[in-house]
Every structure is written in structure tokens, then in C-alpha cells.
Amino acid sequence: MSSNFVDSQGGTLAVALAELEGHLSEVLKEVRHLRALARALEEENQRLRTIMFADQAGEGGYQQLLRFYEEGFHVCPPHFARVRDGEGCLFCQSFLEKKGLQSHG
């Protein structure tokens, strides 16, 4: 009995299996990449939680948001906790201004 069975497209089973192994290898490579990305995001999330919930004596919510913004993160609702690109954010600044006026007025 021959090991080169012919499939309906005229190719061999061995060729089809080799292609499948190649695809599987690509999928496994992508899974490893996604796992590393997920791990990095989990670490970043933990770091952000530590910053957000740091026990600051006498620091209110507005001060925490201001500190968070000054450390380079968005505090505006559309982009909250995302890293800013180094530039100021008009949404964040407007949000902080509104919050600051509410807390002082």
C-alpha cells in the first residue's frame, strides 16, 4: 500500500499535512505573541492600579486625577488611563478644569 494517497484535488496527503503543519506553526507563533502582549498589558494594568489607588495622605479625587495626568496618562473619559503621547490633551485639560472648578466652588 502506497503512502502517497491522492486527494480529490490531485495533491498528496503528505503535502496537505505539511501545509497544515505550516499553518499550525503560524497560529502557535501568533498565540505566543498574544500571550506576551496579554502579560505586558496585565503588568501595565497592575502598575496603573497601584498609581490610581496609592494611599496619598489627604489627597482627594481631583488631586489623584491631576497627579495621574502629570505622570503621562489620560484622565478624560474617552481615553481614560491610556498613555499620552507626551503632548497635552485638550479633553483631559478641559475635564480637569471642570473638576477643579467643581471642587473649589
Automatic annotation (TrEMBL):
Keywords of the record: Coiled coil, Cytoplasm, DNA replication, DNA replication inhibitor, Metal-binding, Zinc
InterPro entries assigned to the protein according to its UniProt record, in alphabetical order: YabA
Signal peptide location: none
Taxonomic source organism: Moorella mulderi DSM 14980
Protein name as annotated: Initiation-control protein YabA
Pfam family membership, one: YabA
Residues forming coiled coils: 17-51
Any Gene Ontology biological process: DNA replication
GO molecular-function terms, A-Z: metal ion binding
